[in-house]
Each structure stands twice: as C-alpha cells, then as structure tokens.
Design a protein that fits this description.
The chain is mostly helical and 185 residues long. The C terminus is likely disordered.
Length: 185
C-alpha cells in the first residue's frame, strides 16, 4: 500500500511542477467536494445532492484553487526575499485584512445564489445576519493556519496545505450557509 501512495505522491508532485495552477485547482475542487459530502451528511441531508456537490467542486476548481495560487505568488512578490517572524506576521495580517473577508463573503454569496439558487434578497439578508460571526470566527482560526503556512510551507505546497485546512473550514461555512429548506431535501 505504501508503494502506491508513494507513487501517487510522486506523480502529484510532478504535476505540481509541470502544471501548478491546474494541479492546485483540481486539488481544491476535490477537497471542497469531500468537505461538502461531509457537510451534507452532518447537516442531516437524507440523500447526497449531486448538483450541490458539483457546484461546490466548481467553486474549488474555478475560484478557490486559482485564487490561492495567485495570492501566494503575490505575497511572495510583495515580500520578496524577506524572511523571519516580522515578515510572516505582515503576510498573515495582510491576508486576514484582505482575502479573508473577501473569501468568506464571496463563499456565502456563491453558496446562496448558485448552490441553493435563492433570490438575491434572501442571500443578502443571510449574509447580513451571518457574515459578522463567520468573519470573527475566521479571524480566530485562520491567522494560526496562515502563520504555519507562511513560516513552514514551501511556496508550491501552500495552496495544498491551505486547501486541506480549508476543506475543514468549508464544512463550517457550509453548515453556516445552508438554509433550513435545503436540509429537508
């Protein structure tokens, strides 16, 4: 079994070198799909909703993976050649003040409009009601993840690490964004 895992990991690393954006996008899509499957089960959905699952995977593939790819490249450009705790702290702070609020807002809007197909007024009210608590929770959780990511992860693994942790975070967001009507399906 370990040989299979070793070989698969080697092929993954090759793809990460040859096609970093595509590999990160596919990885994010798969991880978001896994987290949505878990979130559906936890929230009490009786039968797995494949349309929802595919729309969530689309979110990971088309948005989350590419966004992370370019965010980490940008961070390395902004702080080019700078290392140490002060630089890591600045990266984490910048990420938490810019991409964190945007990503949580965007996810909640995407989930309401696209995944659940709710009208804008209902989505807007849901975001208005839940966004502050989601963002405050994010600011308690993600700075630690960001610190580990910037301090210890090589650039090519940052999106993978972030996507893995984000799959757990997505379960939380999924459960927070899900409307009561969806649970009955």
């Amino acid at each position: 079994m370990s040989e299979i895992v070793k070989e698969a990991w080697g092929k993954y690393l090759q793809q990460l070198q040859k096609n970093p954006l595509r590999t990160k996008a596919i990885t994010a899509g798969v991880l978001v799909g896994c987290s949505d499957t878990i979130a559906q089960k936890i929230s009490g959905v009786k039968k797995l909703q494949f349309k929802r699952l595919l729309l969530m995977m689309l979110y990971g593939f088309a948005y989350s993976g590419p966004f992370g790819h370019f965010l980490h490249k940008l961070m390395d450009r902004i702080f080019k050649g700078k290392k140490g705790n002060e630089t890591v702290a600045k990266k984490v702070l910048l990420e938490q003040l810019t991409s964190s609020p945007w990503n949580n807002f965007f996810f909640m809007v995407y989930y309401g409009l696209v995944v659940e197909g709710r009208p804008w007024n209902l989505v807007k009210n849901k975001v208005r009601k839940d966004y502050p608590s989601v963002q405050l929770t994010a600011w308690k959780f993600w700075p630690i993840v960001g610190w580990i990511n910037y301090q210890y992860m090589p650039l090519q693994f940052r999106v993978l690490f972030h996507s893995f942790v984000a799959s757990c975070w997505a379960i939380f967001l999924n459960l927070k964004a899900t409307s009561v009507a969806t649970k009955k399906a």
